[in-house]
Amino acid sequence: MARQSRLVEGRGSVQGRSEQGKGARKQVPRSSHAGFVAAVDRPDPVVLLEEQALSRIPELVPIRYGRMAASPFAFFRGAAAVMAMDLATSPTSGFTVQACGDAHLANFGVYNSPERRLVFDVNDFDETLPGPWEWDLKRLAASLVIAGRGNGFAESEITDLVRESAMSYRTAMSSFAGMTNLDVWYARLEVGEILEGLRGQLPEESMRRLERTTVRSSGRDNAHAVSRLTVEVDGTPRFISQPPLVVPISEFADGQSEEWARRESRRIIGDYRATLEDDRRHVVSQYEYVDLARKVVGVGSVGTRAWVVLLLGRDTRDPLVLQFKEAQASVLEAHVGSSEFARSGHRVVAGQRLMQAASDIFLGWFRGVGLDGHERDFYVRQLRDGKGSIDIESMASKGMGIYGRMCAWTLARAHARSGDRIAIASYLGNSRVFDDAIVDFAVAYADQNDRDHAALLAAIDSGRVLATLGV
Q1: Is residue 62 packed enough to be buried (19+ CB in 10 Å), middle (13-18) or exposed (0-12)?
Q2: Which residues contact residue 286 at a Cβ distance below 8 angstroms, ignoring those fewer than 6 apart?
Q3: Does residue 259 or residue 107 have the better pLDDT?
Q4: Where are the alpha helices (DSSP H) in 299-390?
Q5: Which alpha helices (H) appear in 13-154, and where do they start and end?
Q6: Phi/psi at 175 (nearest 5 deg)?
Q7: Which of 1, 87, 323, 407 is geometrically suited to a Cys-Cys bond with 135, CB 3.0 to 4.6 A?
Q8: Number of helices (H), then strands (E), in the chain
Q9: Distance (Å, whole) CA 19 – CA 13
Q10: Phi-psi group of 234: left, alpha or beta (phi > 0 → left; psi -120 to 50 → alpha; rest → beta)
């Protein structure tokens, strides 16, 4: 399969790009994005999940199935490969952006910028790859329908909030089309400004709950991670054993795993440091390895290799907890071509830096050899740095509508940084034709997701797949 080409640079005049966007409507009418009908030869979604399981840690795969079985929204979170397959059969305008690849509601959230200000942005890039901008927006829209149904909203409420989110993306892209390149690059949503803007729009209790969530997020730092995940042993913090979710390296078989981790840590951290900017490389060099543990994370990621690494600086009050997360091929690669990057970790990091307004200063990657002797790609980031997300299941329809619009604006900003924002804005236009089409698609795809979720439940009931529930 051919490698995915780089994003286009130097796109010509504003007028020419605008005309190109309008011209794309003739080839792919905006109304053509409406609805979803599964292909006649559409593969069994459970087969796709089973294929993904082949490259994962066998004893953790049942946890993934169990988490996906919990609800249609939980299934959707883990089924990025399934939707990528379906989106590949849908119409696209032909304009490529750096796509998230998994832009559902739960993959947006807050975190601390390098300036120590809480910002709201996309926060998951495992599947990022250049691809059609429509795919991200359609996944976001479908997640709104699925989450809205899960929260018991009326269908009219759901269609309204999806339509408003699609309009938010469209009008944001129009706004970005009129900005300078640097204005687009510096645009971002800061949490303090968001809270001020929401006063008067949400009930007082909802505002208080949101402010409490913000305060909790800002306190989720390295010290917090150490307090939750470690216990002091002979004056040094060590990871607490909480199998199967957290397993310290000392508990792995052969009795030499801990010594292996210490031996390999110097080489691995050295390789990782080489991917950082000079100043950040210097900061990491001031920390020393203390402990390592395997940690189960997320829903769709369960079963991939994810490790937490504890480093200490000047003393035990100066911890740094990094997450080393396995990066496999993006689910989009089967449909748009393989990444231009030889290392999947590099793909994730490059995509994140391109899409996010501000990224973790410790974001990097490496290729390492595990205890099993196999080479794998990883990307690195802080485990917690003010990271937080909204409890989607507790949202009322008005709150989800506001949240959906924020996510859509953020997605448009991310796409505008990498794609031809002028052509995309011209394609979208000023009417609600595209918005209505997205609503129709999202409702139809949510129905398909319900059927796919039921197929997983049937596979579990029949014993075809083993699921560990409630973990």
Answers
A1: buried
A2: 313, 314
A3: 107
A4: 333-336, 344-355
A5: 14-27, 45-53, 61-69, 72-78, 80-87, 133-150
A6: -65, -45
A7: 87
A8: 18, 13
A9: 10
A10: left
Length of the chain, please? 471
Burial class (CB in 10 A: 0-12, 13-18, 19+), 186: exposed
Residue with tokens 């993959």: 107
Residue 29: asked if its preceding bond is cis (omega within 30°), the reply is no
CA distance 434 to 423: 15
What is the identity of the amino acid at 359?
A: S
Tally the C-alpha atoms within 13 A of residue 112's C-alpha that lie toward its C-beta.
Answer: 19
pLDDT digit string, tens, across residues 354-394:
999 999 999 999 998 877 788 999 999 999 877 888 888 88
Asked whether the beta carbons of 46 and 464 are under 8 A apart, the reply is yes
User: Which ranges in 80-121 belong to alpha helices (H)?
Assistant: 80-87
Q: Which residues pair with 199 in a beta bridge?
A: 202
Nearest to 417 by CA among 182, 123, 121: 182
Give the helix, strand, coil percentages of the chain, each rounded to 5. 50, 15, 30
Within a 13 Å sphere around the CA of 275, how many CA atoms are in the beta-carbon half? 23
Amino acid at 330: S
CB 411 within 8 A of CB 136: yes
Q: Are 220 and 387 in contact (CB under 8 A)?
A: yes
Quote the longest CA-to-CA distance of the chain.
Answer: 71
Residue located via tokens 């390492």: 368
Mean pLDDT for all residues in the chain:
92
pTM (predicted TM-score): 0.94
Contact by Cβ (8 Å): 354, 296: no
C-alpha 63, offset from chain centre: 20
pLDDT at 3 over 60: no
* 239/226 Cα distance (integer angstroms): 8
Rounded CA separation 102/99 (Å): 8
Among 381, 394, 437, 388, which residue's Cα sits nearest to residue 153? Answer: 394
- Retrieve residue 328's tokens: 């496999």
Residue with tokens 């792919």: 28
Kindly give the pairing relationship between strand 246-248 and strand 375-382.
unpaired
Q: What would the pLDDT profile of 166-177 be if each residue is shown by its tens digit? A: 999 999 999 999
Distance set, CA 192 to CA 184, 203, 218, 398, 411 (Å): 20, 18, 12, 20, 19
Q: Return the minimum-mean-pLDDT range out of 12-26, 167-181, 244-258, 312-326.
A: 244-258
Residue with tokens 């832009």: 103
Name the burial class of residue 207, with classes exposed (0-12), middle (13-18) and buried (19+) by CB atoms within 10 angstroms of its CB.
middle
The whole-angstrom separation of Cα 57 and Cα 415 is: 34
The structure tokens listed for 188 are 């971002």
